[in-house]
Design goal:
By secondary structure, the chain is α/β, with parallel strands linked by helices. The protein contains 13 helices and 14 strands. It has four domains: 9-106, Nucleic acid-binding proteins (OB fold (Dihydrolipoamide Acetyltransferase, E2P), Beta Barrel); 112-264, Succinyl-CoA synthetase domains (Rossmann fold, 3-Layer(aba) Sandwich); 301-373; 380-427, no CATH class. Strand 1 (29-40) and strand 2 (46-51) form a beta hairpin. It is elongated.
Length: 428
């Protein structure tokens, strides 16, 4: 009879956990390390790996403690944590339950990432002027990823569903590890030599900063920059940003997103074609309706109702030119000159008559005015002109008694002698 006593895995794990929990050295442990594989759970918990150059430990920080962290936690950060070491029974892994966390500066990978990003940006590798447009309807897509990962399956499925006319060529590529960067560069160059693809999807699924690091390598960045075929970078999850994302012609949040960007959706294309057909039909109908209205309007024009009116203006113009031409004939010109002469002669006679009548009228006016001041005309009314030695007498002061005077009346002359002189007092 075998007397060996076998423990269950659960019993052993509970025992180990008990030992961990009772060990005073594993309580309030102070650790320094670099964060990797950071996950912020929807309930507020932090899940991450704390590591250094030679070792790593899983870590969890519950929401009651994580909400007190005064900074944004991200991969590559170097932190100082305090917590208890225990065993998570379901996985059998030991981990630290972090209670407090403070910054200890940036981790080595993060510093290297930022330095390379700054350098390449200054060199212009991220400039939009170098970005190539992604073809709208690619005939062939080159996919650079692991041939066995979920990423390649997602890409193939999405491309075949959205646009099955596109051909896919898989270039098996290492996407993590120390040889990955060289393999990525080789395959990018190979695709450019083959000249079979219209666009390249370079990517992989999510992972830690170490897993994604090949896509942060300088050699890979330059290979992407030099590619004559446009590249879509589809590395990790939506929150992961690599150097490849900045250099590539377009960044997709995930490999699936890269496939959706690379090809159009055939459903959308069919809907677009149907929409264009309907718009074309309506446009042609509107054009035809306008042409019909225009034709109806033209048919109602007076030219079509009375075609002779079309030449009416021309006929009048022709008659005018004929008349004008006839005036240029010598006989016609002489006849017209004679008419003009007779007309001018008559105008001269009429003018002379008008002048004569005007002068005659003015003559009679002058005669009448002279008659009004003529002494003879006054004498007809009984007045007499008295003269002495031919001098007209205007005052009695010119007379002396005994002088001889001549009296001129309307119908003759008489002689008289002054017998007396008397001057009226009214004139003194």
């Amino acid at each position: 009879m075998d007397d060996k006593r076998y423990l269950t895995v659960t019993a052993l794990t509970k025992y180990i956990k008990y030992k961990f929990d009772q060990d005073a050295h594993l309580k309030n442990v102070l650790l320094k390390g670099e964060i990797s594989n950071f996950k912020h759970h929807s309930r507020g918990h932090f899940y991450f790996t704390l590591k250094d150059e030679k070792a790593q430990i899983s870590a969890i920080m519950f929401a009651s403690n994580s909400k007190k962290v005064p900074f944004q936690v991200q991969d590559g950060m170097s932190v100082l944590v305090e917590g208890n070491i225990s065993v998570y029974e379901s996985s059998g892994n030991y981990q630290i339950y972090v209670q407090t966390m403070t910054e200890d500066g940036l981790g080595n990978l993060y510093v290297a990432y930022e330095q390379l990003k700054k350098k390449l940006s200054e060199e212009g590798l991220f400039d939009d002027t170098h970005k190539q447009p992604i073809p709208r309807f690619p005939k062939t897509i080159a996919v650079l990823t692991s041939p066995t990962g979920a990423a390649v399956r997602d890409i193939i499925h999405i491309v075949n569903r959205r646009f099955p006319l596109t051909k896919i060529i898989i270039y098996p590529t290492l996407v993590q590890g120390e040889y990955a960067k060289d393999n990525i560069v080789q395959n990018i160059e190979q695709v450019n030599r083959d000249q079979l693809a219209d666009v390249i999807i370079l990517g992989r699924g999510g992972g830690s900063i170490e897993d994604l690091w090949p896509f942060n390598e300088e050699q890979v960045a330059y290979a992407i920059y030099k590619s004559m075929i446009p590249i879509i970078s589809s590395v990790g999850h939506e929150t992961d940003f690599t150097i490849s994302d900045f250099v590539a012609d377009l960044r997709a949040p995930t490999p699936s997103g890269g496939a959706e960007i690379a090809v159009p959706n055939q459903v959308d294309i069919v809907a677009y074609i149907n929409q264009m057909n309907e718009q074309m039909r309506l446009s042609l109908k509107r054009l035809l309706d306008r042409k019909k209205q225009s034709l109806t309007h033209i048919k109602s024009h007076y030219i079509f109702q009375d075609p002779l009116r079309l030449t009416e203006h021309k006929n009048r113009r022709l008659d005018h030119l004929v008349d004008k031409l006839s005036l240029l004939h010598p006989g016609k010109r002489l006849e017209q000159a004679q008419k003009d002469t007779r007309k001018l002669t008559q105008q001269l006679i009429d003018s002379m008559k008008r002048i004569y009548k005007d002068k005659e009228y003015k003559y009679h006016i002058a005669i009448n005015k002279l008659d009004l001041v003529n002494p003879l005309h006054i004498m007809k009314k009984g007045y007499t002109i008295v003269a002495k030695d031919g001098e007209i007498i205007k005052s009695v002061s010119q007379l002396d008694v005994g002088e001889h005077l001549t009296l001129r009346m309307n119908d003759g002359v008489a002689e008289t002698t002054v017998t007396s002189v008397r001057k009226d007092k009214d004139y003194e």
